[in-house]
Design a protein that fits this description.
Bound molecules: beta-D-glucopyranose
Helix content: 25-40%
Shape: globular
Number of domains: 2
CATH architecture of the largest domain: Alpha-Beta Barrel
Number of strands: 16
Structural class: alpha/beta
CATH class of the largest domain: Alpha Beta
């Protein structure tokens, strides 16, 4: 049997975290009373989260499940394009199941990956991914994005966002690099705390976890951004001091901001998977840092620890996990946990502590005094999701996140009355602008009707260009009869998420140099060319950089990408203000190019 007392951490070297003291005697006493009358099966149910694709309201009632999530590909009736009304109806059904008179009547908690706006919902405002927000270096803006996201999540009847990602990505080959604000621990700390304040409100203030707020989640604890070779879910190559100084930065900051949940990482350190690492989950996070919220697992991640399967993993609980994310494995897990409780393999004390944390979370989130989701503050109002205030905020974020890498002969800003050729595979492709975690897990295949308020680059350049008396000619492959005054080529990475985005080289197009070829052709024809490059990370693009006059890193700007056109034309004196938050490689093999 595993020896849970083993701690590989020198805890006295780790600074304390300024976790706000939020406990009240009254609530704690109430929790103890509830704990007394819950049955073992009800307790085990509370610490399990199932995915809506694999669980019904009936199951929630029968097994007393504490939480549901919608994974990146899950939606009501399996319909990714489900309406706001469909989401609310399902939220009501789960809530009603958890509140049935024949059960413990503990309201269910619904979590979603609102990682750049409420991105799973049709019609939502999709903000730039974190890599772009890092380039804005604007914490106030990020806080406002958090507040807008909370309102849209609330509008659809959910309670909890699995964000911010506080990973400090140290190798840009990682398929999740774009979920990271920066390679710089300080910047990650600053922006992730801001997002938490926006999502949850400010701890100590009246609006903290109030009617317009949701729960946040700092993820993935700990070291996800430091895995070997940038391999997703891999082994973190770092000394304990590096974990403390680099990868822990976002935890100090978000804990101080009062973040209520922390997600365990798929990755491992010292050969041990984080889901089973008691030294981190319990000794560091809970004991040393005083975190009294919930440690949630990641998508069957508990099943990856030694000797475990998704349906059988007592060790994760004993290591300090409080809620298993068991999307499709929840039923088997429920049975095995009950068995392990009877055999003594899991202790009553640890189970009670996990349930206590889940109950505390629900009370802090105000769930116990809330009506059914569709009757809550923002849900009844249909004018929140994708509203003008939010899309205008997203437009500002797009403008502030773009980084100008090159501007030879001052081709920018664009002049009035020009004939402008817009080319490239991404000019009018919303999927490429939004990247992964956009309507689906991997993203892509987005229709204009999915986000009626969206503005692609092409649409933005048309809008602003025409105001300036320009003529806009669109040709995806860049071939036209009459020569334009200037060309704008929009291109970049296809959408991806998680391990599917892992790379072996930072060379943008290692085999075909399609885009560089188009650019060379334009150059030969004597047409000045501006590149707008969409990517989730810095990539080696020297052939394109060299073949163009101006080059803009626009990252993954989201639905309001077209707002960049105002910067291109310097509308109202707008200028490029974004600064790279990741080092840009000079050579294709500079994988781990970090400041300092
Ligand atoms: C990801 C998490 C995400 C979860 C739920 C996992 O695969 O690692 O970041 O929150 O799925 O979709
Ligand atoms: C889910 C994601 C999840 C991923 C993990 C997908 O099917 O939709 O939410 O993160 O699986 O592998």
């Amino acid at each position: 049997m595993t020896d849970w007392s083993i701690s590989t951490l020198a805890l006295s070297d780790w600074p304390k975290a300024q976790t706000p003291r939020l406990q009240s005697e009254k609530t704690e006493a109430l929790i103890e009373r509830i704990l007394e009358w819950l049955t073992p099966a009800q307790k085990v149910g509370q610490i399990i989260q199932a995915d809506i694709a694999s669980v019904t309201p009936e199951d929630v009632a029968a097994y007393h499940l504490g939480s549901v999530l919608n994974g990146g590909n899950s939606a009501p009736n399996g319909n990714q394009r489900a309406s706001l009304a469909d989401w609310l109806e399902l939220a009501d059904a789960f809530w009603a199941a958890s509140m049935r008179a024949d059960g413990p009547r503990i309201p269910i908690l619904w979590g979603t990956d609102a990682v750049h706006g409420h991105n799973n919902l049709i019609g939502a405002t999709v903000f730039p991914h974190n890599v772009g927000l890092g380039a804005t270096r604007d914490a106030e803006l990020v806080e406002r994005i958090g507040a807008a996201t909370a309102r849209e999540v609330r509008a659809s009847g959910m309670d909890w966002a699995f964000s911010p990602t506080v990973a400090v990505a140290r190798d840009s080959r990682w398929g999740r690099a774009y979920e990271s604000y920066s390679e710089s621990p300080q910047l990650v700390a600053e922006l992730s705390a801001a997002l938490v304040r926006g999502l949850q409100g400010i701890s100590g203030n009246e609006n903290f976890l109030g009617d317009t707020k949701i729960l946040a989640c700092a993820k993935h604890f700990i070291g996800d951004g430091g895995t070997h070779g940038g391999r997703d879910q891999g082994e973190t190559i770092a000394t304990e001091a590096e974990l403390r100084e680099v990868h822990a930065a976002g935890y100090y900051a978000t804990l101080e901001a009062g973040v209520q949940t922390v997600m365990a990482s798929f990755s491992s350190w010292g050969g041990r998977k984080m889901h089973g690492h008691k030294a981190f989950l319990t000794d560091l996070l809970k004991a040393h840092w005083g975190f009294d919220g919930v440690v949630v697992g990641d998508w069957d991640g508990h099943g990856q620890i030694e000797g475990a399967t998704p349906t059988d993993c007592p060790d994760a609980l004993m290591a300090g996990l409080d809620m298993y994310m068991a999307p499709d494995s929840w039923k088997g897990l429920h049975a095995s946990l009950l068995r392990h409780l009877e055999s003594g393999r899991i202790s009553q004390e640890r189970l009670d502590d996990a349930v206590r944390r889940v109950l505390r979370l629900k009370m802090r989130a105000g769930l116990c005094t809330q009506p059914t989701p569709s009757e809550r503050a923002l849900a009844v109002r249909g004018n929140i999701v994708g509203c003008t205030a939010h899309t205008e905020l997203a437009a500002v974020a797009v403008q502030k996140s773009a980084v100008l890498l090159k501007n030879a002969n001052n081709v920018l800003p664009l002049q009035s009355n020009q004939r402008i050729l817009v080319t490239g595979p991404a000019a009018d492709d919303l999927g490429m602008m939004c990247g992964g975690w956009s309507l689906s897990w991997q993203g892509g295949n987005l229709n204009p009707t999915d986000y009626p308020h969206a503005e692609t680059f092409l649409a933005g350049i048309r809008r602003v260009g025409q105001e300036h008396g320009g003529t806009i000619i669109y040709s995806p492959d860049g071939r036209i009869k009459d020569s334009p005054d200037i060309a704008i080529h929009v291109f970049g990475e296809p959408p991806y998420a998680e391990f599917r985005g892992d790379l072996s080289t930072l060379d943008f197009q290692p085999r075909d140099k399609k885009d560089a070829d188009t650019l060379k052709r334009l150059r030969k024809a004597g047409i000045p060319t501006i590149c707008i490059f969409l990517s989730g990370r810095p990539l080696w693009v020297n052939p394109s950089l060299n073949a163009s006059d101006a080059f803009i890193a626009a990252f993954l700007p989201g639905t309001q990408a077209g707002a960049l056109a105002d910067v291109l034309f310097a509308t109202n004196g707008l200028d490029f203000s974004g600064k790279l938050s990741f080092s840009w490689p000079q050579y294709a093999d500079q994988y781990a190019l970090n400041m300092g």
